[in-house]
Amino acid sequence: MDAAGSAADVVVVVAAHGRPAAQEILAAMEERMYKTTERIESHVAMMQARIHRFPRGLRGIGGEDGRYIVPSVVAIGPYHHGLPHLQEMEEVKHAAAHRFCRDAGRPTEEVYERILSLTSDARHFYAPDDGAVARLGDAELAAMLFLDGCFLLQYMGKSDDEPMFAGCNLSSGQAILKDMMLLENQIPWLVLDALTEFLPLDVRQFVADVGEKFFPKEKVTGWMWIRRFQMFLTKRRRRCVPAKTESRGQSTISYRPAHLLGLLRFSQIQSMPGNERAYQAGSSSLLSSSAVELAQIGVKLSASTATWLGDMSLGKKLVLGELCLSPLFLNDVTACWLVNMAALEARTAWDSDGFVVSSYLSVVAMLMDRKEDVHELRSKGVLRSLFSNTQTLAFFKGLGQHLRLGGRYVVVLEQIESYKRNRPVRIAVHRFLYKNYKIIAAVLSIAGVIIGIFKALLALKTG
Questions:
Q1: What is the spatial distance between Cα 149 and Cα 112, in angstroms, rounded to a whole number?
Q2: What CA–CA distance (Å, rounded) separates 159 from 24?
Q3: How far apart are CA 159 and CA 168, in angstroms?
Q4: What is the pLDDT of residues 8-39, one digit of tens each?
Q5: Higher pLDDT residue, 310 or 143?
Q6: How buried is residue 1: exposed, middle or buried, by Cβ count under 10 Å (0-12/13-18/19+)?
Q7: 328 DSSP β-pair partners
Q8: How far is the C-alpha of 304 from the C-alpha of 221, rounded, in Å?
Q9: Rounded to the nearest 10 degrees, how much is the dihedral formed by the CA atoms of 106, 111, 113, 118?
Q10: Would you give the distance in Å from CA 76 to the centre of its chain?
Q11: CA of 373: how far to CAs of 1, 88, 318, in Å?
Q12: CA torsion 353→357→358→362, rounded to 10°?
């Protein structure tokens, strides 16, 4: 029934029954208004903490057969629990839980009871009307969280000769890392926090170390060398009490993520400077430019040395411009993580400031129109990819069609537009030289030959 119909019904009821009926309807309406407001406010309050389903509007970037949405080898949490192709890893989970309790020196019952005591709180982190969660009783949910949490911590702290993971070759090991950071494949942080009370493990450091996979190995900056030295000192095992010092800018110790994917995103952008967050984006109706088009107008691409993923800024040099972008290593794992961090932003960002990763991906996608643009990004050290140029182009253009254009994306377009507006003469000269450099080089070469001939003739004549 539409609004007009509802209003008409109220008028009919009031006319037929008088004032008391109107008061009853008003009271019922106010109660519904109150409950609806309370439900919406509760939903908004939990938005940052909730473990979300992958946004339906972004499923176009989920990869072939949804490989960036559905786990490949291991289910973590209730959303994909019980899928047939994930059952082999369930055996490993039980072995991991046994090893965890043994290493912690605590009986299984004690550890399980601790997780059971958190089940009511943990349930609130999932969508209340989701059937995958609703079908599980508290005891079943606690058992699943216990096994999944122990598995994750054992995998994070495993040594090179860990017997339970002996069957995990390089390929399946990468698949586990990929699955650990899927939006729909998470358990609440409070479960991992409770388990580390029994057996301390620096989960934050593990996630920060894993995040280094985003950066190309050829472009190792100073801060990465420091990080690698830290990793070398603690290479054998990462089981330790969490450090009380700050890491790469803002401290991760005080940050309470909802889950591992949220921590991965935070670890990549935590050192983003305050002035970068305080930008003011203007109009979004600006024209985009590909990498080759930027090269034509005298804007060269270069790899940023910033300590966070998603750095983008256009600087004006004396003659040319320079667009600095965070360097990126792209393979199937990092591509999956990027997709899921963008999906997380789509679910949890309050405003355009929250779309840091999405803005970065949108700018990179903007720079790619042809395979030649991909080659340009590779040659400048901005991108290293195990994908072919064609695959890389398809990945980013697929992303660009679906992602929210965050404020940082608009800022970069504004900087490019400002560069074009303020340097028309230099741009015209550079574009002419760029497009005709082969002809110019040929002419200069011919002129050099002619001059050489004249010099030789002149030498013969004077001789």
A1: 11
A2: 68
A3: 13
A4: 454 444 445 556 788 888 888 888 888 887 66
A5: 143
A6: exposed
A7: 383
A8: 9
A9: 150
A10: 19
A11: 53, 43, 25
A12: 110
* Residue 383 · residue 373 · CB < 8 Å: no
Angle at 453 between CA 447 and CA 456, to 5 degrees: 140
CA distance 260 to 341: 11
Cα-to-chain-centroid distance, residue 428: 38
SS3 316: strand
- Lowest average pLDDT, out of 114-123, 322-331, 351-360, 372-381, goes to 351-360
Question: At which residue do the structure tokens 């004077």 appear?
Answer: 462
| Chain segment 294-342, per-residue pLDDT in tens | 888 888 899 988 878 888 988 877 678 899 999 999 999 999 999 999 9
pTM tops 0.85: no
- Of the candidate ranges 84-88, 112-116, 387-391, 417-421, the one whose mean pLDDT is the lowest: 417-421
Task: State both tokens at 430.
Answer: 């550079």
* C-alpha span between 432 and 430 (Å, rounded): 5
Identify the helix (H) or strand (E) that includes residue 325. strand 321-325
For the chain, the structural domain boundaries read: 3-46, 56-201, 287-419, 423-463
